[in-house]
Design goal:
single chain; Rossmann fold; 11 helices
Length: 358
Amino acid sequence: MLLLCFYLMTLKELLEDGVVSLARIPLKNDYLLGSEGALDLSKLDYLKAYTVPLIGHDYGAKTPTMWNSIYEKLRLPIRNIMVVGNPNQTGDILRALRADPRYLGGGAGVGFKESVIKHLDAVSPVDLNSVNIIVKEGNRLVGYNTDSRGLYLSVEEALGRVGKKTEGSNYVVLGAGGVAKDFIMLIARQGARRIGIINRTYRKAVFLANSINQERGDSVAYAAPEDLIRGSVLNTMVKVDAIVNCTDKGSDGPLKDISAFAPGSAGEFNNSLSIDVLRDLNKWNPEVVIVDIVLPKSGRSITLRHAESAGLENLVDGSGMVTNQAAPAYVLVQKAHPDIHTKIVTEQEALKIFKEAV
């Protein structure tokens, strides 16, 4: 199948050959479904264009809901079609989409945020560590990241509600890949006082912390392995202002029932430790803001449910990040294809539509 991909030229052929499959969990991702849920690829022929987000496993992403809502509202002959693929085949998938005249670009979701970079013609800015939106600009595929800014705005708003600012605050970030990298870089540049980076693969956290410290010229960031979550969030020397989960824990898929505060290895996670940590956190630091970027289809993530049961109140899900990152991403695609986007919207107008949709 990997070799066949060299000869595929459109989204339709990728789907026909089984290189990618339609994501079934996200709402409003059903344009290609016929009666009784069967795939009807002939529907692609009625579209003038499409955006195609790539994800490594099926989960309740909000992208189809938002983008298809704006396409419908503006009556544009475009659809957002989210597909599941193997990140190891990223180069072949993008090669086919690049050749597809109706492909405008699309998201890079879980599994693809980092793997797409080496297969793109450019990224902007040039120091991006991960990509969440690919834009087809002429014959070039250019990657951007609006995730980190979207998450930053969500955290900034949450801190503001408890009388704090992003500048001078202390953070613990769970995760060192994908959006975590650029978000951590952003809060460091915006004047964070202290940033703890907790990751299952410890060396990735160390590398990221060292990179930030070299850029800042101080020791703002430190790394810790996942089994030291407790000590990091219950630090009695430096009280944490915000804890941000950037991992896949709690998302639809194999980690759906795993809290972000549950350390583990070899597929075994200790959820009971998560509850204990959060109860102690409520006693020691009840004003702490907990932000979880995960948005499972079932509703509130297990991480936020655990935090709520422990008595913590300043809890933020991923909806703010999702809408904040989607609006500038939509405008980037719109700007690259003004002939197809016959009705132009501003970023603020897109944001309003997206907030109403989710």
